Amino acid sequence: MTVQEQATDGGVVLTEGAAAKVKGLLEQEGRDDLQLRIAVQPGGCSGLRYQLFFDERSLDGDVVKDFGGVHVVVDRMSAPYLGGATIDFVDTIEKQGFTIDNPNAGGSCACGDSFH
């Protein structure tokens, strides 16, 4: 499945750059049983906060996608908030880390850590 196809099915999209970074982090951990879990939790200035972490669990209702060997998991409660969201990794002088471009976010706080 190409990135374009993944974008049209309404789920989360992981860019090639983000997938490469996740693969590198997993190699550093020496684990091939972990997947990247993306969740939305209450919190932050704007009401909702993203969480990205490695997880070995499989929960009932999880939506799982494969991006070149990187498994991305979204729980069923977070999926509606993340439909069509694109996760990228940036590494510039100004910023380093994962970014989330979410068309479902009505706005975010000034620090960019949370959304509504």
Automatic annotation (TrEMBL):
Molecular function terms from GO: 2 iron, 2 sulfur cluster binding; 4 iron, 4 sulfur cluster binding; iron ion binding
NCBIfam families: iron-sulfur cluster assembly accessory protein (TIGR00049)
Pfam families: Fe-S_biosyn
N-terminal signal peptide: none
Species per Swiss-Prot/TrEMBL record: Haloactinopolyspora alba
Family: Belongs to the HesB/IscA family.
Name under which the protein is recorded: Iron-sulfur cluster assembly accessory protein
Occurrences of domain Core (ranges): 14-113
